[in-house]
Amino acid sequence: MKVLSPSAGRICDIALVHFAERGYDASSLNDIAVLAGMRKPSLYAHFKSKDDLFSAVLELALITERQYVEERFAVTASASVGLNTLYTDDLAQRYESSAALRFLLRTAFFPPAELKGQVSAGFEAYLERMRELFGVSLKAKYPTLNATDLEIFQDAYIGLIDSLHVELIYGNEPTYRRRVAALWRILGDSIALAAGTVAPSLA
């Protein structure tokens, strides 16, 4: 991410929440400027257009959420941590508390037409990193898994994440909880079977 001045960084932080709540089309640079305590022409001194500001906010959101994912997967250094507690265990709470995640998911599902390529590339890279990290964690806990099974379970995990992202946007908490439990049950049993574990477990 390009280095931003303190004023530009503050504008990005404010715009992140604004875009997360309203989306691209319903967001107003004038409103963002007012929230930042400046006039609209002053905002243009930092960002040349709405697209320019939106791109900066997208980069900020991707960096924020990727860092969060990296930190969550780092807990697999503890043998007592189960794979089903990674990322998905507090994803619903994260969605409520993180404007960056709300912005990222809203933007991924409803990208501005003119920025669709940039949004898709950023979000796909974000998911791919999550896929890689899950693979590392899975291999560490189940070293007997062969490469083919590992690839399949990495893809299945991203399918699980995609499903939960949809539920966060369109569903409700009880449905989300049922879905995450059911999907982890299926994925966990499949991993255990492939790894030759006696009792299905993701711990």
UniProtKB/TrEMBL annotation:
Cross-referenced InterPro entries: Homeodomain-like_sf, HTH-type_TetR-like_transc_reg, HTH_TetR
The keyword rRNA processing is assigned to this record: no
Positions of the HTH tetR-type domain: 5-65
SUPFAM superfamilies named among the record's database cross-references: Homeodomain-like
Domain of life of the native organism: Bacteria
Pfam families: TetR_N
Keyword Cell inner membrane among UniProt keywords: no
Keywords of the record: DNA-binding, Transcription, Transcription regulation
Protein name: TetR family transcriptional regulator
